[in-house]
Amino acid sequence: MNRSKSVHRRTVLQAVAGTGVLLTLSPGLLLTGCDGGVKAVESETLGLDSDEYDVELNLYAMPDSVPILPGAPSEVWRYRAELLKGPENTVSENPDSYLGPTIRLRHGQTVKIHIHNELPEDTTVHWHGLHVPSDVDGQPRLPIRPGETMTVGFEVLDRAGLFWYHSHAHGKQGGRVGFQSYAGLAGLLIVEDEEEADLKLPSGDNELLLVLQDRTFAGNNELVYMGRGMGSMMDRMHGFLGDRVLANGAPPTTRKVATRPYRIRVLNGSNARIYKLAWSDGRPVTVIGADGGLLQEPEDRPYAVLAPAQRLDIWVDLSEFQPGDTLELISDRFRAGMMSGGMMDGMGMMGSNALPLGSRFPLARLEVSKSLKASEPLPAQLGVQRQKIPVNSNTRIRSFELSPVMMRGFAMNGRRFDGTNVADDEKVRLGDTEIWEFHNNTPMPHPMHIHGLQFNVVGRRGGSSDSLQQGLVDSGWHDTVLVMPRETVQVAMKFERFDGLYIYHCHNMEHEDAGMMRYFQVQG
Ligand code: C2O
Ligand code: CU
């Protein structure tokens, strides 16, 4: 086992460094490096340790082979789950996709998850957006070695919302988040609660889940990650952009719908791409929720911006349509600083990407095939139970300057990832409310993410949001905020319940992997 493990690890790395082509080994070969049927080893449970859990499941991170495009299947790394205890709808597999199973939890449940690493390298699983103890947060300081199992326990403390889980590994050679997530290690996690259920929003077939990711494929449908030579340098600087967009792990499709309202819940699971969500007929985008659940009331926007790792909850009423009518959800054209501008293209540097940042392309097509007489008005009041975090002129402001580092990516207050080392100004006190201020002193947008909590956006100043400005949804609760070039954004948060180490970073995965990530410490 040990011998084959190291062989496979080396082969995978070679394939990546040498050709830029991902996972060209047959999955059968990869699988021999792991013992396929790992069973839950009774190990110590990190986080919440209890005698009784409401939900218990096995989660496997494993190589697989999945059809994505017509023709040969693609080799991927993906999650699979097995429900051991809990309501039957807790786990819904996405069998035809590399996406991990959708995990549905309810507020207040206690959950125990055995994570089995069947990959040829270290991994972790981060529950993006969830308020969980530091030790179950999936941080790189607690890697799961190949062939090993880690058991985590937590209580679902968040209110209803769309969250997600993905790899968060960072080794001696640098971050592996970009590579592992790109290979397929990501899935949706939905939290439900009573406040949301009482609103009777469209559910079941009338709730569409949409995971947006961009990918590049080689000739035989192999996934390709990062360019070569100069291309690789540019990918690292801008973040990796695939040359086609996938919705739920497949090329965008047509969905048959009826003349009624729908709830569309969208995750940007891309490494670096920003989407500008709009309707093809120009109707406003009605936003009802963000990262941390429902807004207080619906908001109509001409378009809505979705940065990497962010989620948006959208409501659309098709009741005035006729059978045969169609409506497309698109990502509309935009400019976001230097990254998408003609400047780079003009220099011939980004010319190789067939789908530059800010291109226009379809995401989903709704085709009305059935007439109904249901009318379900959208409630005027949505998530009103969680009050905004109160801040005033005495609230402590902690500033972070985002700046470029020659040839090495980006820094925060001049610092880059340094394991669990925490500087004095990265220590906060349990129970405190603070405003964190991100000042973007770079020509690129950065989606800044803070682990373990949801924050409110206090305000923005400066910056060049230009063609994205009216679509930045800042109300409600967030764990990731897009900071535009030269812009300063303030977010308010409270450090509650858990002390210990957490992480803040840019969720452009290539920026993060290159070191735009730091630990901070909540001191009890
Ligand atoms: Cu989704 Cu630290 O990230
Ligand atoms: Cu960044």
Q: Brief overview, please?
A:
The protein is mostly beta strands.
Determine the strand fraction and express it as a percent band: 35-45%
Approximate shape: globular
Assembly context of the chains: single chain
Describe the main β-sheet briefly: 7 strands, mixed
Helix content: 10-25%
Distance between the termini: 42 Å
Any overview of this molecule?
- Helix content is 10%, strand content 40%.
- With 524 residues, the protein is mainly beta.
- The strands form 7 sheets. Strands 13, 14, 15, 17, 19, 20 and 22 form a 7-stranded mixed beta sheet that branches.
- Strand 2 and strand 3 form a beta hairpin.
- The longest helix is centred in the first third of the chain and has 18 residues, at 2-19.
- The protein is globular and about 60 Å long.
- The protein starts with a helix and ends with a strand.
- Bound molecules: CU-O-CU linkage and copper (II) ion (CU).
- Copper (II) ion binds next to loops.
What attributes characterize this protein structure?
524 residues, mainly beta, 7 helices, disordered N terminus, binds CU-O-CU linkage, binds copper (II) ion
Draw up the topology in text.
Layout: H1 2-19, H2 27-31, E1 45-47, E2 55-66, E3 74-85, E4 91-92, E5 102-106, E6 110-117, E7 125-128, E8 149-155, E9 161-167, E10 170-171, E11 174-175, H3 177-183, E12 186-192, H4 194-198, E13 207-217, E14 223-224, H5 229-238, E15 244-247, E16 254-258, E17 261-268, E18 275-279, E19 285-290, E20 293-301, E21 304-306, E22 311-317, E23 326-331, H6 342-346, E24 361-370, E25 396-405, E26 409-412, E27 427-429, E28 433-440, E29 446-450, E30 456-462, E31 480-483, E32 487-494, E33 500-506, H7 509-513, E34 517-523
Parallel strand pairs: 1-8, 2-6, 5-12, 13-17, 16-24, 25-28, 27-34
Antiparallel strand pairs: 2-3, 4-5, 6-8, 7-9, 9-12, 10-11, 13-14, 13-15, 17-22, 18-21, 18-23, 19-20, 19-22, 23-24, 25-26, 28-32, 29-31, 29-33, 30-32, 33-34
The protein binds CU-O-CU linkage and copper (II) ion.
CU-O-CU linkage binds next to strand 7 and strand 33.
